Amino acid sequence: MYKPLHATAILLSALAATSSAYPGWSSVDMMTQLHARASDTSTEALGDLSDLSDSSLTPVGKAIKAMLTSASATATSDEKYGGDVPELGSKECAADKCCVYQHFGAELAGLFVNGDGCTDPARASIRLGFHDAAGWSKATGPGGGADGSLVLAPEEIGRPLNDGLEEIVGQMKKWFAKYSEFGAGMADMIQFAANAGTVLCPGGPRVVTLVGRRDSSEAAPDGLLPDVNDPADKLVGLFVNKTISPPGLAALIGAHTASRQRTVDASRANAPQDSTPGVWDTLYYQQTLNGAPEEVFTFKSDTVLSKDSRTGPAFQAFADGQPLWAAAYAREYLRLSLLGVENINDLTDCTKALPFKGN
């Protein structure tokens, strides 16, 4: 089912590209930096996978645990829906948990990409996926995470750090009203749409996408989302408490390659975070490290992370390492999308339902 990438080859080619692009960094320097952080990777099991014995894991549970606990694991898949897709509402569709998401994905494909690349609804869906899942921490106990509460609990959308998500939250409610009667869940729809937005952006990875999460209308604990004015120590600590390492944080923040800010500085609404917001590329890392053109709005938090000793080397490695970053992002986003999920062993892999570019 899962087709692993050749991680070593990807790493070496990315390092070679990085060392040639940044004369101050030889390949030996970069290897030393990354080896020094080899133990600083996100390899903690999550949810029920932390307690279940390997012998009691389902095939999906085993595969996901391997992806979460191996630093070289791959969390992408090229699996595609085979044959004709059953009609929505038919017995055949009801018998396949992924069928409703195939129909949902087809609708998203027509909305998430145009001649300029990925669209505002795509980037909003990616941000919604981040914010719903990130409302969880080891320090706050049960509750929160990828449970749909950002849409289902009215309190959450009123929090300042969720400003700008009102429109996509309203749209997600409409999609839920349309597809929930056929078995789609809110938490799953949020994460499915986030991964659809990613893969439909030119260059975006096809992240393993799971369904079967439990929805919650109870608001996630407050204070668990990053702020653009936070210092590096706070940001790193916030994500370590989500089981995400500093290099993992650097990989995830690369999603800003497709973002446009609207609320941080209203006078510069719609300013992108790199010069190609319709493309999922590594220009974000390059311009954050080396200075961006005037039309680009760089968040203070991105600047401090690019300079921090715990996250900066990953910024350097990703700057000219698209395959390296794509693999790292997929692995870390899979982890993020499972925060707070306590029934991972029972989930279904519906990556095949994600739209393919050109659908």
Automatic annotation (TrEMBL):
Domain Plant heme peroxidase family profile: 122-359
Binding site for heme b: H256
One function term, GO molecular function aspect: heme binding
Chain segments annotated as transmembrane: none
GO annotation terms (biological process): cellular response to oxidative stress; hydrogen peroxide catabolic process; response to reactive oxygen species
Site (Transition state stabilizer): R127
Database matches in InterPro entries: Ccp1-like (IPR044831), Haem_peroxidase (IPR002016), Haem_peroxidase_sf (IPR010255), Ligninase (IPR001621), Peroxidases_AS (IPR019794)
Listed PANTHER family: CATALASE-PEROXIDASE, THYLAKOID LUMENAL 29 KDA PROTEIN, CHLOROPLASTIC-RELATED
Protein name: Peroxidase
Organism: Colletotrichum spinosum
Lineage start: Eukaryota, Fungi, Dikarya, Ascomycota, Pezizomycotina
Originating gene: vpl1-0
